Amino acid sequence: MSASAEMPYFINPSLNMEAEAKKEAYEEALLGIRANLQGEDNMIMKMVTINALLKSYLTYYYWVGFYCVNKGKLTVGPYQGTLGCLHIDYSKGVCGKAAREEKTQIVTEVHALAQGTDHIACDPNSQSEIVVPVFNKHQKLIAVFDVDSSQVGSFDEIDQHYLELILQEQFASQSLEMAYQLD
C-alpha cells in the first residue's frame, strides 16, 4: 500500500495550540485519564483510553498510538489515526531511536530527516512528531508512545512533560514484560 498525500475523510487536520491552551488541555486530559483508569491494570485498556482522551483534548494530534516491544522489534499496538507501520526495527525511524536510546524524541519537521532511516513515512500528512518510551515497574522498555501532527512544530517540552508523567503514572506499576500479554 502506498501513502497518499490526500487526508482521509475521517481525520481532521491538526490545529496547533498556544502554550497555555496546551497546558490546560493536558490538565483536563490528565484528570480524565486518572478518573477512567483508576484501579485498572489491563495494559490494552490503558492504551486505548490514553489514546482516545489525548486525541480528544489536543487539537494537533493527527495520529496517536503505541508501538509495543515484541520479539526485539516494535509492533503496532492500539492507536487512532491512519494506518500505522506494522513493525519497526530499533535501527529505523523516530520510534526506533526512542526505543534504542530509551529517551523521548521530539522532531519539529519529520520530512527534514533522512527518509527510511531516521524517519519512516507511514503517512505523508505527518509533519512533526514526539515519541516517548514506556517503561514497566522494573524500568524495562515495554513500548513507545508515538504522536504525529499534520503541522510542523507541534511538539515541545510541554508535551514531553505531560506525556512522560501520564505514561509513568499508568505503566510504571506494571510488571509485564511486553504490552501484548493479556490477562
Topology summary:
Layout (H helix, E strand, L loop, with lengths): L18 H19 L5 H15 L5 E8 L2 E8 L6 E2 L4 H9 L3 E3 L20 E8 L5 E9 L7 H15 L12
Antiparallel strand pairs: 1-2, 1-6, 2-3, 4-5, 5-6
Helix pairs in contact: 1-2, 1-4
What does this molecule look like?
The protein is of the alpha+beta class and 183 residues long. The protein has one domain (19-171): GAF domain (Beta-Lactamase, 2-Layer Sandwich). It has four helices and six strands, in the order ααβββαβββα. Strands 3-2-1-6-5-4 form a six-stranded antiparallel β-sheet, with helices on both faces. Helix 1 packs antiparallel against helix 2 (43-57) and helix 1 runs parallel beside helix 4. The model is unreliable at 178-183 (pLDDT under 50).
